[in-house]
Structures are given as structure tokens and as C-alpha cells.
Amino acid sequence: MHINKNFIRNFAIIAHIDHGKSTLADALMRICGALEQRHEKEQFLDNMDIERERGITIKAQTVRLKFKAQDGNVYQLNLMDTPGHVDFSYEVSRSLAACEGSLLVVDASQGVEAQTLANVYKAIENNHTLIPVLNKMDLPSADPENIKIQIQHLIGIPAEDAIEVSAKKGIGIEAVLQAIVDRLPCPQGDETACLKALLVDSWYDAYLGVILLVRIIDGIITPKKKIRMMAANAVYTVEQIGVFTPYPNPVEHLACGEVGYIIANVKAVGDCHIGDTITEENRPAEEALPGFKSCTPVVFCSLFPVEAGDFDKLKESLAKLHLNDASFSYEMDSSNALGFGFRLGLLGLLHLEVVQERLEREFDLDLIITAPSVIYKIQLQNGTWIDLHNPSDMPSPNEIKSMMEPWIKATLFVPDAYVGSILTLLVERRGIRESLEYVTPTRALMVYRMPLNEVAFDFYDTLKSLSRGHASFDYEMNGYEEGELVLLSIALNGDPIHALSFVVPKVRAYDKGRAICEKLKEILPRQLFPIAIQATVGGKILARETVSALRKNVTAKCYGGDITRKRKLLEKQKEGKKRMRQFGNIEIPQKAFIEVLKIGK
User: Which residues does the record give as GTP binding sites (predicted)?
Assistant: First the structure.
């Protein structure tokens, strides 16, 4: 049965973390009868264990709902639930490209946060119609009138007709559904034109191969049709098409304006490019859709399997994970201490943690991760510029003319009580103030410029603990600036450990080197020979610690007798220790890498 596209609405839910997106999605599904009582669980669309444990959305999910509006017609609503955290902004941008409008969810007690602003700007870029929704109205601290003023002042959209709801209690949900039907535009497109479908997402299924999630822009798709992926120039035959209601539900066709999945026996993981255009083989589209802006990784680190034999498994797992999360990049890497592995480019530290956890859980891998770093630009003495992704590749100091590091523009919303401690944190992290204004009598909006390197490690966690979770933070890249930077290397018994190399500001090199040496002295297991731990910058030793040797009592079997017998055994042991030290290969426990990363600035 064809549905007239005037009765279709595609919408996303955007909000800051913890403002109730997933709970609102549950409430919408419940009202539309998509969730049966026996299957119900909170945050239904967060289907990864990590999402449920951390209470965050990582993957954008999609659901088709049916809603009978006040005009008596049944509307098809395609919902895209999006993540809120800054590290998953690429997921958000993809969901928004597949919709015509958005529900802007704002916590009625906390108000507009940094990520709310970032996601709203993305929605406006995609020409979305926005419907403001004030959630958590059941809380005694809810202050809808002030929040509406904030939305108008900070975002610049009229908020007097914002819908007041409590997703948890199920209050006001019908009004949201009716507003989606009344206020959002229906999809544009021509069903008779040649097929154009936007590839929004994909994931790997062990039985079905690659599953594609698409939004049909023009035309219609049915099973047994031959389709062509325009970027990869690969042709496949459609085996099955369907929609999520929220369970996979096969259908006979997907027409323009609809969102659904395609199974087409795609075995080559490399053929799927998120943002690609899918068209019909016999009647191809003349030009591809514009696709998505490719995302630029900002944090880099290396991944190595604990067991060298797992390298091929890691390679295969990364390819499958990349299908589902196109926002990270990876390439081969090797290290003298850790063997073969991969260099990953990611959107942030939470993103790194999630990728690591997904590899370990979904693909059963044991991994070692090196210190995250950012991209530096180096001008050599001969005038050429190079990009430095990995600190261990840094040229020697006499070859370097100047070094540039990436800077960001950070937007922070901070409650009045925590402004002082957060200003101190920003100064410590080399932040430069651009503006500080009070948007309400109790909340300050700070705009700061600071080096990305200062944010890449533990800035987010420190900010949250200083403000007891109340401050919010979002950032965008803001060019490169010259900095006095040096390479801090850690050597064990004279051998540099590349996985523990850091680029640091010159003024901090001594403190950081000292802290790492002391930490390693605690962690490294003692051997039968002493271990010298040194922190060096350009051949100059800044700090040193020694792990003393274990001593085996070789004279235990001598009781009484001549002292020369004991001396002979001790001399023999001494010779052996010398030789051991020469060939002694130090095993570095994985804990050491993780502990060193945790050392605060």
C-alpha cells in the first residue's frame, strides 16, 4: 500500500546529554503502540551495553511510528534518536540530513546547555523546522518561563509555543505528536523519478552481511531490483527491504520520503561509504547527492593487540566497526615494544573509550592503547611543513624551525557557584578569555580559546568533577598557533619506549617527566637487575628513578666453611647480572600504560 508523502514526517530529537531524549523516544513509541508491554525497558533504543551502562546514546537509531492525528488521518512518523555528547556529533549530522525537522528537547530545570546550542546550529544548517519541547516538567525545580526566555535569547527561535512535557510520567506526549504533524513539513521528492537513496548508516550482521540504512529522496525501491552504490561503483541485488517498528519488519517497497533498511548480500565492507547515493542499475541517477561533510579526527592514538597473533582479528574487527562508525580513521602502525597495530584518528576522548570498549566486547580482543595525541604542524629548517600524528615520529630538535599546535574555541555554561574554580582550571590549561557574560542571574556563558592538547586528555572529567556535573562544554576547531613544545621521551635502561612519548609545553616538561618516572617506579615489576627509568628531552635527562634489583641468595647452600667459597659464588652472580642487564628484556605491564595516561597535567 502506497502512502501519500503528505502523510509522512521525518524528524530527529536533539538535546544536550541527559535532557531526556531517549526517555522521550520511549514515550512516543509507547503512545503510538510500537512498544508492547512485555518488551518494554527504559531507553529502548539504546541497544548497546555501553549505552545502557553509561546512560548515553552513542548510535543514532531509527523507528517508524503510526499516529492518528486530530484530522482523522494516520501519519507515518520516522523518528531518529541522536546522541548528545560532543564526540558523537558526526552521528547527529547524519541523522539530521535524513530529516526535515527536529524536536529540540530542553530540560525545564537546567535550561539551554552547550551541546544544545551546537546541535541546534547543525539543525539550522540543514534547514530544519524546530519544535521546542520542555522536558522534566514534573520536577519541582522546573522553571518553564525562564527557560523559554533563554531559548529565545540564546538560540533566537520563538519559544512561546514550546510544548511542556514529562517524558517519564507520559504527560504532554500526544501534544508533541500532534505538533510534529502540524508544524513539520512533509518530505519533498518525486516518486516517478529515478531512484536516489541516501546511505545514512550501515552495520555488519554475521548472517546477513552488511545491512544498509537509507532515506529515499526520489523514486521507489523494491526487492529483486539491481542497485548501484555510486561512490564505490558496486552493483548488488536487493534481497529484502524493511523498516524498524522498532523491530525489523520486512515491507514490499520503500518510496520517496521513507526511511528503512536494505539487505543486498553486501559482503565487501569497503563498498559502503556513509553518505553515498544508492541508485538503480537500469535507470541510474545522473548525479550523486551531496552526502555528508567528512569529519576531521582531532585525537590520535595507537592500538596494539596484547597477543601478537590477534593482529589479523583486530584488522577485521576495525573494518566491521568502521561500517557502523564512519567517524574514526585507522592505518597500520608498528612499535618496537608492542609489535604491529593500528593508528586511530578519533573525534575525542569519550569516542576513544567507546571504540576501545566496543572492540573488546563485540569482537573479544585484548588491547593496549598508547597515549592520545593531537596533530602538530612542524616547519623544518629547510622551510617544508610536515604534519606530526605520532609523537615518536618527531624530527630531532636541531631540524625544527617552529612548531604549531591546534587550538579550539570552547563554549562553557557554568553555574554561578563554580565560576571561580573553573576560571582557575581554564588558566591552568593555557586558556585565553574571549567573553564571559551572565545569561541568567545564576549561569555564566564563557567563551575561551585554548590548545586542543589541553582538552584532549582529562579536561571533560575535571570540568565535571569541579562543577559537580553542572557545567556543560562544547568546542569547535579554531586554527593553529605557534607554541614552545618539546618531545618528552621515556627510556628504560636506555631503550626509548615510543608508546610513552608525549609532546608537551616546554615549561611543563620537567614536572610531567618527574611524575611519569615516579609512577613507573611504583608499577614496574622488579627484575633480577636494576631498571633505570629516565625522562629525556632532546638527549637531556630531566628526571631519573631506579627500580632496584631482586637479589637471589646464592650463598644459602654454604654453611660454615671458607669465605672464599661464598665470594666465588657472589662474583659469579655479579657476572651473570651484568650479562642479564645487557640482554635483559623488560616486560611492561599494560597497567603501566593506562596509569601513565591518567597522570594529571
Answer: 18-23, 135-138
* Kind and range of the H or E run holding 578: helix 563-583
CA 126 to chain centre: 22
470 is in an annotated binding site: no
Render pLDDT for 368-397 as a digit per residue (tens, 0 to 9).
777 777 778 888 888 888 887 777 777 877
Q: Walk across the sheet containing 74-81 and list its strands.
A: 61-68, 74-81, 8-14, 101-107, 129-135, 163-164
> 294: annotated binding-site residue?
no
What is the rounded average pLDDT of the residues 6-26?
78
pLDDT at 46: 43
Instruction: List, in order of start, the domains of the chain with CATH numbers.
Output: 5-183 (3.40.50.300), 196-280 (2.40.30.10), 299-367 (3.30.70.870), 376-482 (3.30.70.240), 487-598 (3.30.70.2570)
The answer to the question of whether 351 is labelled as a binding residue is no
d(Cα 192, Cα 201) in Å, to the nearest integer?
A: 25
The 3-state DSSP class for residue 455 equals: helix
* 210: Cα within 13 Å, side-chain hemisphere: 23
18 is in an annotated binding site: yes
22 is in an annotated binding site: yes
The reply, when asked if residue 137 is annotated as ligand binding, is: yes
Which 3 state secondary structure label does DSSP give 289? coil
Please state whether beta strands 339-346 and 443-451 pair in parallel, antiparallel, or not at all (unpaired): unpaired
Q: Do 10 and 102 form a contact (C-beta atoms < 8 A)? A: no
In whole angstroms, what separates CA 136 from the centre of its chain?
27
21 annotated ligand-binding residue: yes
Q: Is 366 annotated as a binding residue?
A: no
pLDDT at res. 20: 74
DSSP H or E stretch at residue 132: strand 129-135
Q: Is the pLDDT of residue 42 over 50?
A: no
Q: What is the mean pLDDT of the chain?
A: 76
Round to whole Å and give the CA distance between 549 and 432. 48
pLDDT in tens, 50-85: 444 444 444 446 788 888 888 888 888 888 766 555
Q: Is 519 annotated as a binding residue?
A: no
Closest CA relative to residue 29, chosen from 247, 183, 182, 251 = 247
